[in-house]
Structure formats: structure tokens, C-alpha cells
Amino acid sequence: MNGTERDTRPQGGTEYKLKKERVRKGTARRLLACVRPYKGYAVAALLCSILYVGFTLIGPVLYGFAIDSMLGKGQVLFSSVFWMTGGFALSVLLAALSQKILNNCVNALCYKLVRDVRRRAFASLTEVPVSYVDGHAQGDVMTRIVNDVDTVSDGLLQGVAQLFTGVMTILATLVVMFVINYLIALVVVVLTPLSLFVAAFITKRTYKSFAQQAQVQGRLSAHAKEMLAGQKTVLLFSRERESCRRFEEIDEQLYRVGWRAQFYSALTNPSTRVVNAVITAFVGVLGALFCIWSDESGVLTVGALSLSGFTVGMLSVFISYANQYTKPFNEVSNVVTQLQNAFASAARVFEVIDRPGEDRTGEKHLEKVRGEVRIEDASFSYDKQKPLIEHLNVHVAAGSKVAVVGPTGCGKTTLINLLMRFYDLDGGAIYIDGVNARDIPLDEYRKLFGMVLQESFLCNETVAWNIAYGNEHASREQIEAAAKAAYCDFFIRNMEHGYDTVLSGNSSVSQGERQLLCIARVMLADPPMLILDEATSNIDTMTEMRIQKAFKKIMRGRTSFIVAHRLSTILDADLILVMKDGAVIEQGTHAQLMQKRGFYCDLYNAQFAQSGKAAHEKEAEDAQEG
After folding, report:
1. Count of other CB atoms within 10 angstroms of residue 231
2. Could you read off the pLDDT of 412-467 as tens digits, one per residue?
3. Which of 76, 331, 455, 488 pairs as cysteine with 516 (C-beta 3.0–4.6 A)?
4. Which architecture, in CATH terms, is 370-448+559-611?
5. Model pTM greater than 0.70?
6. Fold for domain 21-353?
7. What b/e readout covers 474-511, taking b as 16+ CB neighbours within 10 angstroms?
């Protein structure tokens, strides 16, 4: 399924909801598993959170004692107030120091975790089959590797620290409140589920919204990348308005989904704050009544129960603890929202990580490759409902020059993809020197071929680095020799820094020159077999003639496959495979195929007739001008 297509699966039903819940829990478990290599940071963060909470809880007790030390006019115990105030200031400083160390540990933990996830995702992306890359929009894949991983990082950074301190604060304040006055503490505990219910009700709706937001962001990135890559085509056909309309359509959908996600996210905090304010009000009223009803000895009698009464200082301490107890629910509910967003993005990243890579195993190694290729009973189709290649049989002798010709869509490129094992056969096998291609380790197998495509792939590196891409141990002399053989040495030396010139999107290297650099790369790699897919399509006629001579040199003694549209370039081929509708309908030399008067003959005559007609029209134009 293309990455830009919408998911049309039913979104309702118990089974779908259970599946989503399993995915969410599985994602959380996998993120926790990624923490194991850095559990030292996690332990340190936990210890610092305990210290932070401890120092935070000591503070209210100290200023509560300070309040009780001020009994009335002329009854202030200044020494006690001084020590309590000093202790409170010290607890604040130690709490701040603990929080600083906690944040440093959490930052290190999260950034290292996210770094590992991004590296794993990119490594997985380099190993997935070509079919995965072909079947997904590149913009969506890039969004997963970059944006979604950043979202995971932001969610964990903001969430983990608050989660650590929030949980510890809730547990510690709960214990202290029960010690001070279990009756009021019980009221706080009974009312707390209101806050949890509100938070759970809202966050249940955030995960789906954030998941949809991540999907639409991927589609938006994919569309923008496609339009930028094909900008010239868009301008040529005056499709700017259509491109903008489509962008605005997806952006509008992103606005609606994002607005809904952010609305629920923003609703969590104020809703829980209202509930927490109600709880604090209950505590204040009950505590004040306890202070009023307590006798001089500080005992409150309710029926047969005798309870510890409240002083004003204790009331201030209890209110402070009640606030500290309810505040983390606020933060934890906010953390849940952030983690929901992080989990939704992490699930998309793990989809890339979980994609099975190509099978690179193999037990047989070819010491010396002769280049004999046999394709036996091969069948393949991209869509299993639409057969393409069926029961294909081809035998190519070692050292042969093989041309693959046919109309557009006949399967020429597919045959090359199968030879390179970019796609696996549905049936049959390919043999190299009598060895099944599947039995050869994939890395070794692909090094048997040198490939020059219509599209030129060059990295943002120096010219020398790009030429040596397939042979990283090559010397400068070997690089320059390959460039000379590919007729690109002359324009390389005219560059500002010669072979050390860094190629970039803004460089003045033409398409033809880029293709020459790719040809030089293959010549330097010196593979046993060659695949040329319209390798001279962007090169002028004079340079093409020179390149053909260079190709003849490197193809001598090597098995070569040439995908050609101009039949005049493959007249000397040892074997011509004529393809139509995924099948090889004719094969032989040029002379043999012309004698058959079949499909190849019609193709050749059609090209010859077109070129002859063009020459005749040119002569007529010249005559008229004369």
C-alpha cells in the first residue's frame, strides 16, 4: 500500500480497540526494554526523585513549626523561628539540587534511548527489501525517522521526570497525611478518584487523535517532498494551483486532527485542577473546624473517638501536603497525554524497525566467477492478482553480451530487479555458474554485478569519494584512471577543487556529467558482471560513442546485461531477449531475429522508419530554407 493512501480498515469494533490497546502496551514495553542498557541513569533518577520529594516534604513541616512558634503578641520563640526558617531554606536548596541532577539523568537517559531507536530505525531502513521503499512514500518514511523520533524524545523528556517525582510525591504525602490526621486524609483519598476519572476520560481520546495526527503529518511530508522533487514537471504542466490545493486539503485535515488532539490534551490540566481545588477546599474547611473544636490540650472528641486536633501550623502543613498530593495528579495526567503522543509516534517508528530485512544468509561462495546465468521456470508479480512474469527460462553463456529489449512495461526493469535480487522470485530460480542465487550470501552476490542506471545517484561528498563508492580502498591513481576511462577526467579537473570538489544539490554538474561519474564508479569497482539500464541516456552523441568504446573494453570477457531502447546500440549483442507482457517471446542475435520477421523485426523497422522519416523531414526543411 502506498504511504500516501488512507487506511480504509474499519475503525470501530471491540476487536480493533483491543488491537490498538495491545499495540500501545507493546510499544510501552519496548520503550522500557530500550532503557535497560542505561538502567544506571534510571536508578540515579529514581534516587534523586526520592531525595527531591523528601526535601520538598520537609519544608512544610518546618514552616508549620515556625508558625506554631509564634503563639501571640509577645509570645514569639525567635530562636525556634530562626532555626525552622533556616532549615526550610536549606531544604529548598537541596530540593533544587536534587531536581537538577534528576533532570540531567533523565535527559541523558532519554537522549541515549532516542538515539538508539533512531539508529535502529535507519539501520532497519537500509536492510528492508526494495519493495518496502517502493511501496511507501519517501516523505512518510522520512517523517518516521526524523519527526516521529523527535516526538518520542519530547514526550519522554517531559514525561519521565514528572512521572518519577509525581508518583513519589503521591506516595510520600499520602503516608504523612495519614500520620497527621487519618480522617481528613481519608477524605482526600476518597475525592481523589474524581481527578483520575476526569484524566482517564480525556486521555482515552488523545491516543487515537495523536496517532491520526502522526499519520496525516506523514502524508503532508510525502506530498511536499513529491512536489519539490517534481517541481519542473509541476511548472511545465501549470499544476501549481492543483499542488497547492492538495497541500491545503491535507493541511486542513492535519489542522482538524491536530486541533482535536491538542484540545483534549489542553483540557486535561484545567479539568483536574478544578477537581484538585475542590479537594483543597474540603481540606481547608475540615481543618479549620478541627482547629476550632480542639480543646486546650489539642484533642478533638467526636462521640466516642478522640482525635488529634489541629493547630494553625498543622493546618498549613496539611493544606500544603494536600496541594502537593493533588498536584502530581495534574502533572501525571499531563504526562499521560504526552506519553500517548510519544507512544503513537513510537509505534510508527517500530513499524520500520520491525520490517523484516532481506535474507542475507548463504552457504556457498563463488571463488572465481565465469558469469554463466541460467533463469529456470521463474515467475514473479508485484501484485499477486496480476501475473507479470511466468515460467521464464533463459540461458546466458559466460562472457556474453545480452540485450533486453521490448516496449514500455514489458518487464525489462523487473528482470534486472530479479537478477539483482531486489525482489525475490515467486517461483523458479536463478543460477550463477550453476549455483542457486539464494545459496550465495546476498552481500557477496550483489558485488558480482556492476550497475549503471538512468537515474544518477551521487552523495554530498567529494568527486573522488563518489567514484570510489564501490571500492573504498582504491588509490587516487586508480580513481583518476577510472575517470579517464569514463571520459569525465577533463570536466573534473575544470572544477574548483578538482577531485576534491564536494558535490551538492547546488553544484553545476549536469545530468550527463553525473551519469559519467556513475559509469566511472562501476569501472573502478571492476565487477565480474555488468548491468546497464540505458546508461548513456543523458549523454551527447560524441561522448556516447567514446563511452561505448569504454564499455566494450570492460565488457570484454564479462557477462553483460544491457537494457536498451535504441536498438542501434545493441546490434553486436551475443543474445537479444525480446520481452512482451512479462515473457521472453523471442531470443537470438540481431541477424537471427531479423530473419524471423517477428516482433523484434517490427520494433527495429519502426525505429528505423521513424529515424528515416525524421531525416527526410530535415532534408525538406533545409531545401525550403535554401
Report:
1. 12
2. 888 888 998 888 888 999 999 999 999 999 888 988 998 888 777 888 889 999 99
3. 488
4. 3-Layer(aba) Sandwich (3.40)
5. no
6. ABC transporter transmembrane region fold (1.20.1560)
7. beeebbbbbbebbbbbebbeebeeebebebeeebebee
